[in-house]
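Hi V.,

Quick status before I head out on leave. The structure for the redesign project is tokenized and pasted below; the design run finished overnight.
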């Protein structure tokens, strides 16, 4: 039995169906990507050298959002991405030094949390000095806030300058550097 010849109308219907299916798939992929970015993981470009040498200026990192949403709040030592309260640049990345209720003190270039000097090998012995004379030490971190500092202490605008950062400003936990390739790997 011979097939009926394809008509011009059949071809245009087939092309239209293909275009609609493709547009639907592209829209679905876009919506899925935006959902993942909003609720699971998000890439960020590092805007400053405040985390040197841990993270370089211009590195690209992945921040995951699930841990702080479903498991636990940020912990001491976590590297977090957060909305800059001063707005320029809009996103910053720093290390959690203390959380709600803890006392932070800076003495002789050393950071003390709840009266204990903390071990900070990631600063490579660079001193931690006060930056904002309006912040008095020891400083008790208010409820719902974090004390965040960059690893490159002499060149980091952090909680020593802007004060504590609201937990609600935290976008996620920076967990992986994905660019440039030589820096590819987990953040610690």
């Amino acid at each position: 039995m011979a097939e009926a010849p394809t008509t011009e109308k059949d071809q245009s219907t087939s092309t239209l169906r293909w275009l609609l299916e493709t547009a639907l798939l592209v829209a679905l992929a876009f919506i899925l990507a935006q959902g993942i970015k909003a609720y699971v993981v998000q890439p960020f470009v590092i805007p400053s050298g405040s985390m040197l040498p841990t993270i370089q200026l211009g590195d690209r990192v992945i921040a995951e959002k699930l841990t702080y949403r479903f498991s636990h709040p940020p912990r001491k030592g976590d590297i977090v991405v957060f909305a800059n309260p001063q707005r320029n640049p809009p996103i910053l990345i720093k290390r959690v030094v203390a959380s709600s209720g803890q006392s932070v003190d800076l003495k002789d270039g050393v950071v003390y949390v709840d009266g204990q000097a903390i071990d900070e090998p990631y600063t490579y012995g660079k001193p931690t000095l006060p930056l904002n004379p309006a912040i008095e030490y020891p400083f008790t971190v208010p409820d719902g806030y974090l004390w965040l500092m960059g690893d490159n202490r002499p060149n980091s605008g952090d909680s020593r300058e802007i004060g504590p950062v609201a937990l609600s400003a935290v976008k996620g936990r920076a967990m992986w550097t994905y660019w440039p390739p030589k820096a590819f790997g987990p953040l610690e």
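Above is the designed sequence. The mean pLDDT is 91.

G. will cover questions while I'm gone.

Best,
W.
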